[in-house]
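thread: overnight batch results

M.L. [08:02]
morning all. the overnight job finished for the chain we discussed friday. pasting input first so we're all looking at the same thing
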Amino acid sequence: MIIKNMKEAFPEMKSEKYGSGLIPVLQWGIIIILTGIGIALLVAFISTIVTGPVSSIIIFFFLFIIAGSLTGFLIYEAVKLKDQRVYNILVNDRGVSFLNKSDAIIYEIKYKDLAANPDDYKRDLFSASSGTGKFSSFRMNLFIFIKGKDQKIRKRLVNFSIIPLKNKYALIGYFLKGVRLYRPDLNIDPKVYRDFYLDEKSLCFDPEIRRKDFLLKGLGMTVAFLILLFVFYYTENRNT
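M.L. [08:03]
and the structure it wrote out:
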């Protein structure tokens, strides 16, 4: 009865995508374009065999091989690997599941499999940048710890950015809400709420927090650009 009530209190949340059929159309569009480029390169290669220098023959041959390889890889991915491509993300009382086009589970991360950070002085769930440099803070990811079948605890990325989503931050917040509910023994780094624009109490996505964050970051980049421009201008005038 308790488990049933918990499930009713924690209904599932599914991803909302930007144009569900857009990615396959773009993929096949790229395949068609690459096929056209490959045919053009093949014609050019055949022509250079008859009239062109050896250097041109070699260049067109390698370009044709590259175009053909890319086309073949994309066709293989579109046809053979379509069942292994993530189309949807589902958060429910079990954890987070990554689904294919038929809504079959490709892989999932269950709340019961989450583990504490082996380093006792650090948080069990935290955010970290996937990039480097000035814009790294725009590419934050959620990390957890999982205990494998070999009983070893490993850090793992929960990739909510694997597909373009309208409700990415809402899904992250809902997953964290599930962690609070089903794994209250785990500690969530407070920075996670800031990095994913979540209200710390409700764990709901707050667009106002994101708007303010983007404004601050934009202002910071503008100031940095103006400083660099001033330094460049000052250096140029000093040299002249």
